[in-house]
Amino acid sequence: MSDKPTLLVAGLHAEVDGKEILKGVDLRVPAGEIHALMGPNGSGKSTLAYTLMGHPKYAVTGGKASFDGHDLLSLTPDERARLGIFLSFQYPTAIPGVTMVNFLRASLRSLGKEMPAREFMQTLKREMEALKMDEEFRARYVNEGYSGGEKKRAEILQLAMLRPKLAILDETDSGLDVDALRTVAEGVKRLAGPDLGILIITHYYRILEFLTPDVVHVLHDGRVVRSGGASLAREIEHTGYDPILGVTAAGAA
Amino acid sequence: MAVEAHELTKDYKYGFHDVDVSVFRTEKGLSPEVVAAISQHKNEPEWMLKFRLKALQHFEKRAMPTWGADLSGIDFNNIYYYVKPIEEQAGRDWDDVPESIKQTFDKLGIPEAERKFLAGVSAQYDSEVVYHNIRADLEKLGVIFGDCDTGLRDHSEIFRKYFGTVIPPNDNKFAALNSAVWSGGSFVYVPAGVRVDIPLQAYFRINSDNMGQFERTLIIAEEGSYVHYIEGCTAPTYSSDSLHSAVVEIIAHKNAHVRYTTIQNWSNNVYNLVTKRAIAYEGATVEWIDGNLGSKITMKYPAIYLMGERAHGEVLSAAFAGEGQHQDAGAKCVHVAPHTTSNIVSRSISKDGGRTSYRGHIKVYPKAHDVKVSVRCDALLLDEASQSDTYPYSDIENSDVTFGHEATVSKIGEDQIFYLTSRGIPEAEATALIVNGFFEPFVKELPMEYAVELNRLLAVQMEGSVG
After folding, report:
1. What is the DSSP-derived secondary structure letter of residue A133?
2. Does residue B317 lie within any of the structural domains?
3. Contact A81/B427, CB-based, under 8 Å?
4. Which domain holds residue B463?
């Protein structure tokens, strides 16, 4: 047992619509560390994110996943959230008619982190300013009519308000221009610390310029095929995935 | 035999009933004798008795409507058409109301609401209004708010000028029935230029078993005036059905603005068959804010006749149909004059096999040019067993009309639930949040106290689906 809350994934297999996507994923993300999970399109990155959060469409067919010593796979998504897991969605869903404020308050209440109204509004104001979000966002409906950049900021705002122990960021960098990317990355950086583990799922190196990872994993065809330090990400940026995966493919053959 | 409320439904908190305190009731069933007895008991003028008897003939001649919800369960012979709860006419002092009736309205929060945020209150119990009051300053300005029987007696000239002019007795079978046996309801008169800044509310409570409530509401807003009228309604849950068949007539004169809000929360054994119609003259605005949560079957299509240039009509409705319920609701806008506009927004939710229907009619007369109409209906189904249908009719006889119509039927998405649960919100609460969000366009038009109450009622309805 680790003394820090740690995500442990061992030999995880999962399928969606009968098709196996994860074919034995091994991963370990302790609190206080930033991990990057990289890989080409179709390697299973987003599937891993959804599976860890418990999306009903993703069926686990083998292996284990635990957080802070608790078996995740037997829990519903809300129970996983209450353990301290947070997923920043690549494509957040709109909830028409539900304001961001009401949503955040319902969420905090469910997580047992309810704050007095005044403190809540002050915290919200502070976090929105840090993410350069307009005040009118509070009254807007969750993800309805947001631009791509607004959606990503709103996800990081939730991360900041809900204060989980493990944040899985699924392609949070996609669809952002450089300025927005910097704001979002800095937003995450502000929250990083000894109590938060971060798993950044990304196709590109870009976001890692702002958020230096402690460990980089490469996912390919449903398995983690390589892990290394920050230099691995730079290597991928420099050479692309092919040389790294070529070696693996040859070894597997 | 009456069955105690909690045995039938655990969710409907207004299902309790009092002992029968009625001081007079007509015999069961309908006949000219019953109609005459009602009129005689009320000491009405001859013209009203004739009006009633003629209406009864219309009722008897007309066939049951078969184009809408299933009404075959109504047994007109097994209904008390007039049940008088108190000896005296309605007073302005709660202390004069018999104790058991007072307790009922206490439980429903009526006196408290009056103190807190209403300009006037009327409370009807079975066939008669047992209490009504209006703020003294409004009364000084000439605002009248009382029951229709008092309107007929004390304000006969103006009452007779408008009564039955918007909805004639032969309009439809249930308007005819109401016209024959009507009792109670509200009479509202707002003089020219007077703005009633906070709402007037009427509360309708059925207490008796096998009872028909036939209130009659008449609202007259003179030039440039404003009034917001709210009605709420509940009934005990009995094993046999009750009938509620109201007629509501609104006359909005030049540049007047009338808003009529209904939160219908009848118990699930009430047939709710209501005719509501407004006339909007030049520059006038009429808004129907119509929420239907309760009843077994509701058929109600608030209508606005836009008779003068630049008149505007809004119908904003929300319906919730649970197990065994059919909410057949909609709207009707008739554009008679040029430069008139109407906007219809309907939101409905069906759950546990419940059924919602939107039935709308837009009519534009040949002389009505530069007309704008917008209709939007959205239905949300919470499970496979539930049902929603849309019956939009339009009859447009002028080419200079902008007509937008949009209708959607959707189910609560797996992705929406996943998103909310991933933030720690349990699934049942996530569903309730989505449902509340769906009704938000309606709820935000309600005074805060009613919005809170409606959200609470929805939460109760949603709880029924879990466990």
Report:
1. -
2. no
3. no
4. 420-467
Q: A57 to chain B: which residues are within 8 Å by CB?
A: 414
B449 CA: distance to closest CA in chain A (Å): 18
Assign B287 to helix, strand or coil: strand
Chain A residues whose beta carbon lies within 8 Å of the beta carbon of residue B426? 78, 110
Asked if B423's CB is within 8 angstroms of A107's CB, the reply is yes
CB of A181 within 8 A of CB of A65?
no
Those of residues 428-447 in B touching chain A at CB distance below 8 A are 429-430, 433-434, 436-441
Query: Choosing among B418, B435, B462, which should be mutated to test the A contact, i.e. which has the most A CBs within 10 A?
Result: B418
Question: Is the same domain home to B20 and B152?
Answer: yes
pLDDT in 10s for each residue of chain A, 253 residues: 447 899 999 999 999 999 999 999 999 999 999 999 999 989 999 999 999 999 999 999 999 999 999 999 999 999 999 999 999 999 999 999 999 999 999 999 999 999 999 999 999 999 999 999 999 998 899 999 999 899 999 999 999 999 999 999 999 988 888 888 998 999 999 999 999 999 999 988 888 989 999 999 999 999 999 999 999 999 988 888 888 887 554 444 3
Encoded tokens for B306: 């836009």
Q: Mark which of B300, B324, B358 sits at the end of a domain.
A: B300
Which domain-ending residue is among B300, B322, B338? B300
Residues of B whose CB is below 8 A from A92: 419
CA-based nearest distance A196→chain B, Å: 16
Average pLDDT of the residues in B72-76: 94
Residue pair B271/B242 in contact (Cβ under 8 Å)? The answer is yes
Q: Both B80 and B222 in a single domain? A: yes
Indicate whether B77 and B212 sit together in one domain. Answer: yes
Q: How far away is chain B from the Cα of A15, in angstroms, using its nearest Cα?
A: 17
Partner-chain contact B422 A76, CB within 8 Å: no
Among the partner-chain residues A55, A82, A97, the one whose CB lies closest to the CB of B437 is: A97
Q: Which residue has the tokens 């990289």?
A: A38
DSSP 8-class letter at B268: T
Closest among B207, B269, B268, B215 to B242, alpha carbons compared: B269
Nearest residue to B270 (alpha-carbon basis) of B213, B202, B201: B213
Report B:397-416 residues touching A (Cβ under 8 A): 413-416
Residue A191 at interface with chain B, using a CB cutoff of 8 Å? no
Residues A8, A10, A11: CA angle, nearest 5 degrees: 160
Q: Confirm or reject contact between A82 and chain B (CB < 8 A).
A: yes
The model's pLDDT over B77-101, given as tens digits with 9 standing for 90+, comes to 999 999 988 877 667 788 888 888 8
Q: What pLDDT digit, counting tens, does each position of B199-213 carry?
A: 999 998 888 888 899
For chain B, say whether A158 makes contact (Cβ under 8 Å): yes
According to the model, what pLDDT value does residue B4 have?
41
Looking at the fold, whether B127 and B272 belong to one and the same domain comes out as: yes
In chain A, the domains with their CATH numbers are 6-93+165-252 (3.40.50.300)
B408, part of any domain = no
**ipTM of the complex model:** 0.95
The pTM score is 0.86
Residue A52 Cα, gap to closest chain B Cα (Å): 11
Better pLDDT: A168 or B114: A168
Query: CA neighbours within 13 Å on the CB side: how many for A86?
Result: 26
Nearest Cα residue to B295 out of B73, B62, B4? B73
